[in-house]
Design brief:
The complex is a heterodimer of chains A (about 475) and B (about 100). Chain A is an alpha/beta fold and about 475 residues long. Chain A has 17 helices and 17 strands. Chain B has a single domain, classed as Transcription Regulator spoIIAA (2-Layer Sandwich), CATH 3.30.750.24. Chain B contains three helices and four strands. In chain B, a hairpin with a 4-residue loop joins strand 1 and strand 2.
Chain lengths: ~475, ~100
């Protein structure tokens, strides 16, 4: 490791630590004033930043990136503005426990190329709300738009009285440098949104990390579902920003009894079913053969570009390409996650086979992320939810917009979706400001009567049975 | 905001600060500090003490000034005394309490 890199890392972290020292002295009112100012500045620039991100990355649709920026600013702000994140946040006279919020310290926020400006603004807002300095680590493919986002937010924060260096940025031009920062002793937490390798590096750094996992979102359309409604919602989700959200639908599973109806509905709503030859051509450009992962070149691309790359003809205006596959796994490349408007399609003989297919898809690289069911049968909804290993089970909801919260449900608006231990994460929550504070618990003396009212010498008497001791323990005189 | 006192007997220069040491206050104090604090090249002949008993808030710019003066004064010649607990904790979080000899 070069001394130059170490010196650079130390300089950034020294500044961040000074900012942390100053920030911890801020009260709730001062903190909220900064958060409001940054929200307003980010929101005002939502269109400009969306266009910059689309132009720089060549991914997605700028109008949809505007909505993502709205999520990362307005909707996140709405959800955290009234939250207590400073000092006493709760006090319960019954339990005698008072909770005090403390900041964590410098947070390294890793930003993905798929949602650069929205994720940056989201992370800046939740870090400032919890009084933590943030160091944005931008993907090299989105460094310019992230830099502009940071500039806008930092200027607004300073204007509102925030500590100097409360927002800094590094560009991940060098993997060595990013890893150096990740493992730096002055980093309090890594907020890692990105690919599996990056999240693993964050968790392996020796510093605490909140990571995300990859998705491979199965959608089960039950016989009880409203099929036109389901198809319409799936299309609106899978085409949102050309499928760049990791919670976007990846595979549709139906029972044979409704297969034709679902296919007809997709076709009616301008989607195209690939024939076996076309599937092979799309597989070739969508999935990297060696790594069996999606090709970066098709991420966030519209159907027309994908069709051109694959050398296939599809009707003008086609929204999504669907591939009916005979199985799940490496032999069927399109059964893995593809962040583009391509969907795998499966037909099952019966309900149990259909749910088993969803479980297989869920475990093919998407454990812990999200799953979806379209149904009007509560029993089946709950059964499905209990069988899938997913942090979010979305019911009759487009998954891109549903998993990130606020639009279609009361999940916390977030661009860092926890995937639980299945996704090698510590939580299944939609991460937000409350995940970025240390909570101290002031516990006042409240002697437990059960403990003090029974004869504790019984614990030393081996001749007494467990039942005897428990009976004495719970004796209600 | 800041008062200076020199004790020739033990060759100790004390700066006593009062109030919030925010960025604005530090900017205003910069000149008066550079004029009054006896710093020379190399190790200072006098001990320099910052008394923060009446300080309730310190900005990062104030901590930076402390670091700069401590470096110029030389090892063992600078200390910060009588911090209120909240301010002491701030120095702890900055990771500079040892360098600044905060008590």
């Amino acid at each position: 490791m070069s001394d130059n890199l170490l010196e650079k890392a130390n300089e950034i972290l020294d500044k961040a630590q000074l900012a942390a020292a100053e920030f911890h002295q801020y009260n709730q009112e001062e903190t909220d004033r900064i958060v409001e100012a940054v929200f307003k500045a980010g929101f005002k620039n939502r269109v400009k930043l969306a266009k910059m991100a689309q132009e720089e990355t060549g991914m997605g649709i700028w109008e949809h990136k505007v909505i993502k920026n709205v999520l990362g600013t307005q909707l996140v702000y709405e959800s955290i503005r009234n939250e207590k994140t400073v000092g006493v946040i709760s006090s319960d006279p019954r339990t005698g426990i008072t909770e005090i919020a403390q900041p964590l310290g410098p947070i390294l926020a890793v930003i993905p190329v798929t949602n650069p400006t929205s994720t940056s603004m989201f992370k800046i807002l939740i870090c400032l709300k919890s009084r933590n300095p943030i160091i944005i680590s931008a993907h090299r493919g989105a460094a310019k738009s992230c830099a502009e986002t940071v500039r806008i937010c930092y200027e607004a924060a300073l204007e509102a009285g925030a500590p100097e260096d409360c927002i800094q940025m590094i560009s991940s031009g060098s993997r060595e440098f990013t890893q150096l920062i990740m493992g730096h002793p002055k980093i309090a937490l890594i907020l890692a949104t990105g690919g599996t390798g990056l999240v693993k590096a964050a968790y392996s750094s020796g510093n605490p990390a909140i990571g995300v996992g990859p998705g491979n979102v199965p959608v089960f359309i039950d016989e009880s579902a409203d099929i036109p409604f389901a198809v319409k919602n799936i299309i609106s989700s899978k085409t949102f920003d050309n499928g760049t959200i990791c919670a976007s639908e990846q595979a549709i599973v139906v029972m044979k009894t409704i297969e034709q109806k679902v296919r007809d509905e997709f076709e009616k709503q301008h989607c195209y079913f690939l024939d076996p030859e076309e599937i092979k051509k799309v597989e070739k450009i969508a999935i990297a053969e060696e790594s069996m992962s999606m090709s970066p070149g098709i991420v966030g691309q519209p159907v027309a570009v994908i069709a051109q790359k694959a050398g296939i003809d599809v009707p003008d205006g086609t929204k999504i390409l669907l591939a009916k596959l005979g199985g799940i796994g490496k032999e069927f490349p399109l059964s893995i996650e593809v962040l583009a408007p391509i969907l795998a399609f499966y037909s099952a003989d019966d309900y149990h086979t259909a749910v088993n297919m969803c479980i297989d898809l869920n475990y093919l690289g998407g454990i812990g992320h999200s799953a979806c069911i379209y149904a009007n049968d509560e029993k089946r909804i709950m059964e499905y939810a209990g069988l899938l290993n997913a942090g979010r089970i979305l019911v009759n909801t487009p998954t891109s917009q549903g998993a990130v919260g606020y639009f279609y449900n009361l999940l916390a608006p977030s661009l860092t979706l926890g995937c639980g231990t299945g996704g090698k994460n510590i939580t299944t929550e939609n991460n937000t400001a409350k995940n970025l504070i240390n909570i101290q618990r002031v516990s006042r003396r409240k002697p437990n009567e059960l403990w003090f009212s029974h004869d504790q010498s019984a614990y030393y008497d081996e001749s007494l049975s467990t039942d005897d001791i428990m009976k004495e323990y719970y004796k209600n005189h | 905001m800041v008062n200076f006192n020199y004790n020739p007997e033990n060759k100790t220069f004390t700066a006593t600060f009062v109030g919030r040491m925010d960025t604005l206050a530090v900017e205003k104090m910069n000149e008066v500090m550079s004029v009054n604090i006896p710093l020379s090249e190399g190790k200072s002949k006098d001990k320099i003490i910052f008394d923060l008993r009446d300080v309730e808030y310190i900005s990062s710019s104030f901590i930076r000034i402390c670091v700069s003066i401590a470096k110029q004064a030389g090892q063992g010649q600078f200390s910060i005394v009588h911090c209120q607990p909240f301010v002491k904790k701030t120095f702890k979080i900055s990771g500079l309490d040892d360098i600044l000899n905060v008590t």
